Structure to design on (306 residues):
């Protein structure tokens, strides 16, 4: 029996390198947001050099007829140590009337968390490195808590790669850090590393989190997806966490690619029915894919967890 919370779009992958207007190695790990009547993805585009930038793709239905606009891309500023080897894996949060983009700076000193803001995805204001190496998988909450912004992130120290939360008066100054979610035990699907996927989603039950978990096997790493729920007023309190993964590599486009056995979500949108969550994820570090789930069903799944 397979109980599936997420239903893959039949037309997956929704974007791949052959769609790109310029020669490209791979397109994957997109951030997502609704802007007006369109879904906008900030797609990680890995050039054939190996260096990534973040390009804009828009579509009215979020699945088909994508307009890919390289003129709106955020490119690495290779004069900065933080971005020398590229910029990767964005998340977009609407906060205080603008879009706040967190992304991984691939620096020669390790991966770190950079932040930029935009109002139109045409011009971007950089705010620099918000968290030094080694850190990734960061996204702000879309509202403040007692006047403070909050950021989930994933520092790495030795073999430990857990999710943390920090707070601050503005997006550039984050402190008061605390561990939030730990990797799962030993051989669990999320036993090696975890990291936030899309930004937290506010629901009546609390903040819904979607995170990736890694299990390292003799054949390499497997990246899968789980869910968690945080208290709505105190996001340092974890109310529930899925014991099992809810989306994992299954289809050929997830099993085979530049890095096989990877599903890696960085964005989601809510459709007009108020219940359908559309998850955007990178598959096998090669493709952009989409899968839909019912918010009610995701929350019911979390309510069943111990
Ligand atoms: C992670 C990140 C992602 C990538 C994944 C699988 O560490 O670098 O960009 O999708 O590995 O290769």
């Amino acid at each position: 029996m397979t109980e599936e919370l997420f239903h893959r779009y039949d037309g997956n992958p929704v974007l791949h390198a052959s769609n790109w207007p310029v020669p490209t190695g791979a397109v994957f790990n997109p951030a997502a947001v609704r802007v007006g009547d369109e879904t906008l993805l900030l797609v990680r585009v890995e050039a054939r050099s190996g260096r990534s930038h973040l390009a804009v793709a828009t579509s009215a239905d979020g699945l088909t007829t994508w307009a890919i606009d390289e003129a709106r891309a955020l490119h690495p500023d290779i004069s900065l140590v933080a971005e020398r080897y590229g910029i990767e894996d964005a998340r977009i949060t609407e906060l205080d009337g603008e879009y706040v983009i967190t992304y991984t700076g691939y620096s020669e000193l390790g991966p770190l968390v950079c932040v930029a803001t935009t109002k139109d995805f045409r011009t971007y204001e950089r705010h620099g490195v918000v968290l030094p190496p080694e850190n990734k998988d960061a996204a702000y909450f879309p509202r403040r808590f007692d006047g403070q912004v909050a950021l989930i992130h994933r520092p790495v120290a030795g073999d430990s790669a857990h999710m943390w939360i920090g707070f601050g008066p503005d997006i550039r100054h984050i402190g008061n850090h605390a561990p939030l979610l730990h990797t799962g035990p030993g051989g669990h699907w999320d036993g090696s590393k975890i990291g936030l996927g899309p930004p937290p989603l506010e629901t009546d039950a609390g903040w819904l989190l979607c995170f990736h978990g890694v299990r390292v096997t003799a054949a390499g790493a497997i990246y899968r997806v789980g869910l968690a729920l945080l208290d709505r007023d105190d996001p340092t309190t974890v109310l529930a966490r899925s014991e099992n993964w809810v989306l994992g590599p299954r289809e050929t486009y997830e099993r085979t690619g530049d890095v096989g056995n990877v599903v890696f979500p960085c964005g989601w949108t809510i459709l007009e029915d108020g219940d359908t969550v559309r998850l955007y994820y990178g598959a096998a570090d090669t493709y952009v894919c989409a899968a839909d789930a019912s918010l009610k069903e995701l929350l019911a799944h979390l309510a069943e967890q111990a």
User: Anything to note?
Assistant: The longest strand covers residues 206-217. The mean pLDDT is 97. Residues 29, 88-89, 223, 259, 262, 264, 282, 285 surround beta-D-mannopyranose (CB under 6 Å). Residues 7-305 form a domain with the Tachylectin-2; Chain A fold (CATH 2.115.10.20).
